[in-house]
Amino acid sequence: MNYFDLTFYVFAIGAVVSAGMMVFSRNLIYCAVGLLFALASVAGIYVLLGADFLAATQLMVYVGGIVALLLFGIMLSVKFTGVELRTGTLQMLPGLMIAAGLFLLLVRMVFRTEWAVNQPGEMLPTTSTIGKRIMTDLLIPFEIASILLLVALIGAAYMARRERT
Amino acid sequence: MMAVGLHHFLVLSALLFVLGLLAVITKKNAVTVLMGIELILNAANINFIAFSRYVDTDLDGQLFALFVIITAAAAAAVALAIVLNIYKQMRSVNLDEADTLAG
Q1: What ipTM describes this predicted complex?
Q2: Any domain includes B101
Q3: Is residue B1 part of a domain?
Q4: What is the pLDDT of residues A121-135, one digit of tens each?
Q5: Do B7 and A99 touch (CB under 8 A)?
Q6: What are the chain B neighbours of A145 within 8 Å (beta carbons)?
Q7: Residue B103 lies inside a defined structural domain of this protein
Q8: Which of A25, A51, A121, B37 could form a disulfide with A30, with the two C-beta atoms 3.0–4.6 Å apart?
Q9: Rounded CA separation A132/A127 (Å)
Q10: Which of B15, B31, B58 to mutate to test the interface with A (most CBs of A within 10 A)?
Q11: What's the pTM value of the predicted model, to 2 decimals?
């Protein structure tokens, strides 16, 4: 077992354990912390796949941004008087059965399909290629994404503000 | 034990996807449902990047994953605004209690 495999298993087990903590914990703060570590481990997986720019983006956008946003959402929407910082679960047994069945189906699909695997090449820095691709053949999706972010920003700020009429 | 390859990443992604789905269908709190959605999007991203490394060897998968991250950020912001509005209206973010429109 070489270092690549060892690193993969470390990050994979980290991601799955913290995602499991997120799913099965009843405390909302534990859920958020589990999600935080799961997303950080996924960034490590991205590095193992040679996606250095995406790993940095993952750390900045998800770990730095979305988890903080979710924590704000938790803090602003609980009653601090009691033990309301908890979440209940609904229909755990059917949910577990559906999840396990889907997982078995997916794993079966993964191992029964003949993937056209190429020998992966050397890991090169991807940032400059991604920048060139975004500015040339992906320019229109890029601009649409910018407009989407602007619209989401304005819409979220408008919806979340206090009404003063 | 076989060397880590495409299958390992796909199985990891399937596992994260299933955990995210479990969070979406079993949690009562709207914010935790949102966390499950983020986990599902991350599982999809692992698939995109793994295929981009092992099958395509071009960067198309990574670019697609980048746009998924952008969309997820926008979705999280809007969804949290909606959750805060629900909390303002009903004093609760439990999805099974937000049933004003139900007959």
Answers
A1: 0.89
A2: no
A3: no
A4: 788 888 999 999 999
A5: no
A6: 67, 70-71
A7: no
A8: A25
A9: 9
A10: B31
A11: 0.90
Which pLDDT tens digit goes with each residue over A58-90? 999 988 889 998 888 888 877 665 555 677 777
CATH number of B51's domain: 1.10.287.3510
Domain ranges, residue B34:
10-18+28-90
B29 phi, psi to nearest 5 deg: -75, 135
Q: Which two tokens stand for residue B60?
A: 């198309």
Q: A89 has which bridge partners?
A: B27
What residues of chain B, 22 to 81, have a C-beta less than 8 Å from chain A?
22-23, 25-32, 34-36, 38-39, 42, 45-46, 49-50, 52-57, 59, 62-63, 65-67, 69-78, 80-81
Crossing angle for the helix pair B60-90 and B30-51, nearest 10 degrees? 180
Domain ranges of chain A: 1-90, 124-165
CATH topology of domain A1-90: Four Helix Bundle (Hemerythrin (Met), subunit A) (1.20.120)
**Angle between helical axes of B60-90 and A127-135 (0-180°, round to 10):** 80
Q: How far is CA A163 from CA A150, A157, A159, B98, in A?
A: 21, 12, 9, 21
Q: Which residues of A touch B59 (CB under 8 A)?
A: 126, 129-130, 133
Nearest Cα of chain B lies from the Cα of A165 at a distance, in angstroms, of 16
